[in-house]
Amino acid sequence: MAQSAAPATVVPAITPISLKAIAPWAVFFGILMLVLLYFVGAEQGATAVISGEGVHEWVHDGRHLLGFPCH
User: Fold this and answer.
1) What are the extents of the domains in the chain?
2) Spatial distance between the Cα atoms of 24 and 18, rounded to a whole number of angstroms
């Protein structure tokens, strides 16, 4: 009986991503995280952007999870 060779597997080459390609996304997500941190940690204080208790109620559990005092 003749033995057949196993089919060759092709491994795709991994190309590195340049810093130029990553930088805009890093800036975008950095700003997004700062805005999120503001709403969780500082909204409803002296620097409130939105009046009322709506934002406070939406991020209330997040404040406790991250250790921000809110009451």
Assistant:
1) 43-71
2) 11
3-state secondary structure 12-69: CCCCCCCHHHHHHHHHHHHHHHHHHHHHHHCCCCCCCCCCCCHHHHHCHHHHHHHCCC
Q: Look at residue 7 in the predicted model and tell me its pLDDT.
A: 76
Walk along the chain (71 residues) in steps of 10 and give the mean pLDDT of each run. 72 89 96 86 68 73 78 69
Cα end-to-end span (Å), the chain: 81
Calculated CA dihedral for residues 29, 35, 36, 42, nearest 10 degrees: 150
Structure tokens at 15: 């190309």
pLDDT at 30: 97
